[in-house]
Design goal:
CATH superfamily of the largest domain in chain A: Response regulator
Radius of gyration of chain B: 20 Å
Number of helices of chain A: 13
Structural class of chain B: mainly alpha
Distance between the termini of chain A: 82 Å
Strand content of chain B: 5-15%
CATH topology of the largest domain in chain A: Rossmann fold
Largest sheet of chain B: 2 strands, antiparallel
CATH architecture of the largest domain in chain A: 3-Layer(aba) Sandwich
CATH class of the largest domain in chain A: Alpha Beta
Oligomer: heterodimer
Strand order of the largest sheet of chain B: 1-4
Strand content of chain A: 15-25%
Largest interface: A-B, 37 and 44 residues
Order of helices and strands of chain B: HHHHEEEHHHHEHHH
Strand order of the largest sheet of chain A: 7-6-8-9-10-13-14
Order of helices and strands of chain A: HEHEHEHEHEHEHEHEHEHEHHHEEEE
Number of strands of chain B: 4
Shape of chain B: globular
Amino acid sequence: MNKNILLAGFSLLAFVGGNAWAEHLVAIAGPMTGQYASAGDQIRKGAEMAIADINAKGGVLGQKLKLEVGDDACDPKQAVSVANTMVNKKIVFMHGHWCSSSTIPASDVYNESQIPMATVSTNPQVTERGLKNIFRIMGRDDQQGLVAGRYLADHFKDKKIAVVDDKSAYGKGLADEIAKAIEGKKVKLALRESITAGEKDYSGLVSKLKSAGVDVMAFGGYHTEVALILRQAQQAGLKLTVMGGDTMTNSELVTAAGANADNVLFTFAPDPRKNLDAVEVVKKFRDAKIEPEGYVMYAYAAMQLFAQAAEQGKSTKYNDLEKTMRGGSFSTVIGKLSFDAKGDNKLPGFMVYQWKGGQYDYVKN
Amino acid sequence: MALALQQLINGLTLGAVYGLIAIGYTMVYGIIGMINFAHGDIYMVSAFIAVSGFTLLAGLGVGSVPLALVTVLLVSVLFTSVYGWAVERTAYRPLRGSTRLAPLISAIGMSIFLQNMVQLTQGARVKPIPPMLTGGIDLFSSDGFTVRLAYSQILIVVVTVALMSGFTWLITKTSFGRQQRSCEQDRTMTALLGIDVDRTISLTFMLGAALAAVAGVMVTVYYGVVDFYIGFVAGIKAFTAAVLGGVGSLPGAMLGGLIIGLIEAFWSAYLAAEYKDVATFSILILVLMFRPSGLLGRPEVEKV
């Protein structure tokens, strides 16, 4: 009798243990709640679809992938605790975080625990600190800022240009780069300002822009603030064009700013929906009633990166993954991915886009 | 000069909203001596009710802006008062008579509960309404700067002034006002005189919530977007306004709100906007150093 129970206990243990080994735990982390929750939602949808597709083809090295989701709400403190949780769950790969200010502190935790990560955070500091485990599948703010700044200097040189940021690691980094690029073209800035993100009243900023006669505002920050500034500018009778960064891809900007969103230009990597290799995946997303905008395809690509790196190196151990990711080349839905010594995407490229009637597309000319 | 006038208008509008919310803090503090930290979230709930109301009316084909405004205002005030009553009934009344800290903690718990409830039922995304009152009156221009008084700003200021006059009348002239003030002074004595103290406290919470609801509707019309998190910042600012004006004093709350609105508006127009909160709270510290009970507050006299 006793023996039987013992036996049952052992077989149960073996079963549980076996189950845990039969899956690779991969994770995403980002703002699943909070004011940037819609970006987290995009990441989750992209990752879920990618994992379903990879598992349908037999998984990675014969084992299925399982997704863990971490919510940092773009709060650096919460990001570190999410990172620790993920380390305890023994994940083998992380796609995240989203806000640069979360990615930077969290990456130290992953680095110590030897977990490779692919991020879309654009602040240069993400890869400038010599961490070996970070791979950036998006471009950097200095590249993005250069494209935005040059565009403004070329197309609006007779207009008054202001540069505004939201004091976040991402926003300030981007705004500084845009300002540098504009001044590098010998165009003077009419105004350089900072605001506090998360507020509702930006009438002070709007009055300042109005009294300085500003026509174009380059903004380093997130779409929620841009929507409010545009609405308040309209109320104050100020016609304002905004140049933003990759965060402006969010269609929430259009719901919140209404027709004012047509005045928003922004820089973003070449639209993955236009990538010929991605046609099937894009169709799949649309069939599932998900528009693969913004970060959806990037999350999909991050999972592809992990799957291909693991297959190429025949291992999911950190050292092997790190080596394969750094040396290899991977074909994903956002195009060919390969990384330089710092972990930056070798072929990022940024384009200037404009919102028009609820859709964004490359700006003409 | 034109910029200063514009910021005066913007500051007064912002201050009126802070003041309306601050009254809720100050009244509750006056009557039961606790800070109702869930008040900011009551305001947030009212803004969500307003968004639902406006969306629903637009869906029903109500095109008239004044009609929509009045309806939504009434509906939001009604529902939010119920929320105010329910919060008091469930989170504070059972704790009356326990230590001072207990209701404070349950207030924080209530605040988190309301935030999460709205986040889960309404989603974490921002909820926008299409611009309703877009135009404005151009007052005059100098140095190429046109001072503009937006219709929504007129609405906020007019509604606030009307509400404040009505409210002052309610507190100073009516029998409910007398009961409310006597509860503030001495609850036991008030009860001995045959006044239902619990009912008076409930009504106070409902009144505070109703004023927050008006602020919520105004803000929805003015800024056009709400999310489940707006109660936090607004609550902190309004609480500061209440403390600045003298917690427990109704005119003090309004004055505190206006001062904070004006500081924010002028600071962000003439100095670095990123430091405007530093300025606001520095002034709060300065005022409290010289007048610990706020601008219009009376120091508590210990009766022997």
